[in-house]
User: Which sequence fits this backbone?
């Protein structure tokens, strides 16, 4: 009986790791790393280079993705779906970072670019309130 339980748990862990890897591969498929400066160029009028680099680096860190693979059109939902195999740890870490930065709770955001623009606007609002 105990052996079957052990086998079942081991099988579940292996399946979890396989699905986690498949989700990551699906996200990375067909993407080539690009320099952050090159990715920032088309959106430089929407978000500063400093905020762009900070948000891309943080998103890459919390979701364990190379920031050079993240695109401005990537949806936060896609990242959250991939993160679900880690029980939402990346999304939680991103929320903690926003709290540490004292930016408050963001509205519903669609893309990584939306997040960067919101961070920039929230910081500007915070400065104006000071």
Assistant:
């Amino acid at each position: 009986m105990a052996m079957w339980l052990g086998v079942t748990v081991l099988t579940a862990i292996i399946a979890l790791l396989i699905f986690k890897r498949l989700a990551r591969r699906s996200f990375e498929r067909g993407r080539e790393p690009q320099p952050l400066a090159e990715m920032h160029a088309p959106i430089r009028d929407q978000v500063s280079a400093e905020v762009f680099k900070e948000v891309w680096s943080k998103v890459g860190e919390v979701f364990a993705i190379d920031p050079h693979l993240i695109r401005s059109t990537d949806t936060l939902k896609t990242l959250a779906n991939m993160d679900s195999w880690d029980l939402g740890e990346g999304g939680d870490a991103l929320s903690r970072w926003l709290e540490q930065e004292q930016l408050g709770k963001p509205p519903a955001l669609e893309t990584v670019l939306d997040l960067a623009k919101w961070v920039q606007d929230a910081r500007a609002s915070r400065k104006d309130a000071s």
